[in-house]
Specification:
There is one protein chain. By secondary structure, the protein is an all-alpha fold.
């Protein structure tokens, strides 16, 4: 990503260092949240634009900037999901009103993922937004409890408790899905 950043050469270099350090991590994180690779770059770019326009103080690669970036990227990704969900619901409602034989919306994006990956994504979608966020940060982003606590504003012990509970729920959802598939449902 190329950015034009006002504020002098030194600030520009620091900003570019932050982008270089976190861009790939944020792209991976946002992609796992949205499941939509085409929108991922836009969301991450918007995150860095917000960083450039809102960040006050010294801009350095570190936990403070990292936590801020992940929080903004997460919020942008969730906003995207909500917009897409509303758009899909409106489209579906309109299609049903106009004609009963509208094209089904099932299976979007599922052709490229393995059956197990689809089950995991479906199980993740059944978790609450908070639980899903923590699982993604811990399992896919390999963040420490301390990092997750800083990013979310939760205590380290609360992160551990929530993750334990969320992973049990995730395992239960996966087990139920496998049983359904074995029974031919």
């Amino acid at each position: 990503m190329t950015f034009f950043y006002k504020g002098g050469k030194r600030k520009h270099e620091k900003f570019e260092a932050v982008v270089g350090n976190y861009e790939l991590q944020l792209l991976t994180y946002v992609s796992r949240i949205t499941g939509n690779p085409s929108s991922t770059e836009d969301i991450v770019q918007e995150t860095f634009i917000k960083l450039a326009s809102h960040w006050k103080g010294e801009l350095e690669v570190g936990p403070k900037v990292s936590a801020w970036l992940y929080k903004v990227a997460h919020n942008e990704a969730i906003d995207f999901i909500r917009r897409e969900k509303r758009r899909a619901e409106l489209h579906l409602k309109h299609s049903e009103d106009v004609e009963q034989s509208a094209f089904p919306s099932e299976g979007q994006g599922g052709g490229q993922m393995s059956a197990e990956a689809v089950r995991v994504v479906q199980a993740l979608e059944k978790l609450s937004e908070r639980d899903r966020k923590l699982v993604v940060l811990k399992v896919y982003e390999e963040r420490t409890y301390k990092d997750i606590a800083e990013m979310t504003g939760l205590s380290v012990s609360n992160v551990g408790f929530i993750l334990h509970s969320a992973i049990k729920k995730l395992a239960q959802h996966l087990s139920e899905k496998r049983k359904e598939e074995q029974n031919g449902e």
